[in-house]
Amino acid sequence: MRFNFLKKPENNDNHSVIKKEIIRELLRQVRLSYNLAFAVTAASALITLSGVGLLYLDKVSEATLTTSGGVLATITSTQLAKQSKEELQGLMDELSDS
């Protein structure tokens, strides 16, 4: 059995390749999350505007329901974008420490 003590281990190279793949995948997921949050925010803004339109047509109960639904969707999508950003930052910090 031969031992080769002079050959450098390839372990560090494999870890850097894995880290790059993880970062690439995380960035892809964050882009998709932001795109989803943007689409939901745009849709909820339209819902909110239609609620305001219903308010001008003196349909107060429908306007209240529609506007509150739009505001709730906006808040939820904003929280989703913030949460994915914080997760990405935490993973980036974790990868930079190792």
UniProtKB/TrEMBL annotation:
<dbReference type="Pfam" id="PF20712">
    <property type="entry name" value="CyanoTRADDas_TM"/>
</dbReference>
<protein>
    <recommendedName>
        <fullName>Cyanobacterial TRADD-N associated 2 transmembrane domain-containing protein</fullName>
    </recommendedName>
</protein>
<keyword id="KW-0812">Transmembrane</keyword>
<feature type="domain" description="Cyanobacterial TRADD-N associated 2 transmembrane">
    <location>
        <begin position="26"/>
        <end position="87"/>
    </location>
</feature>
<keyword id="KW-1133">Transmembrane helix</keyword>
<keyword id="KW-0472">Membrane</keyword>
<feature type="transmembrane region" description="Helical">
    <location>
        <begin position="34"/>
        <end position="57"/>
    </location>
</feature>
<dbReference type="InterPro" id="IPR048567">
    <property type="entry name" value="CyanoTRADDas_TM"/>
</dbReference>
